[in-house]
Amino acid sequence: MPYDLVLERYGGYVVVFDVDTDAVPVFTMAGTWVGEAATPDAIGDLIRAWEHTDGPQ
Q1: Rounded to an integer, what distance in angstroms lies between the CA atom of residue 52 and that of residue 2?
Q2: Alpha-carbon distance 10 to 27, whole Å?
Q3: Whole-model pTM?
Q4: Buried b or exposed e, range 32-45, using 16+ CB within 10 angstroms
Q5: Contact, 34 vs 46, CB < 8 A?
Q6: What is the per-residue pLDDT across 14-55, written as a single tens digit (0 to 9) for each?
């Protein structure tokens, strides 16, 4: 049975893959919104940017 959404752990983060879009929402493991990567390739850049601005305190 195929799934439309897949949650995947990415270090201390959770990413949500949706078959209908390239955009990838990213959250911390605690549920804090990090942002949305435009593509799966941009996840690492989004996390690095968040860690250098809003990141874990």
Answers
A1: 37
A2: 10
A3: 0.84
A4: eebbebeeeebbee
A5: yes
A6: 999 998 999 999 999 999 999 999 999 999 999 999 999 866
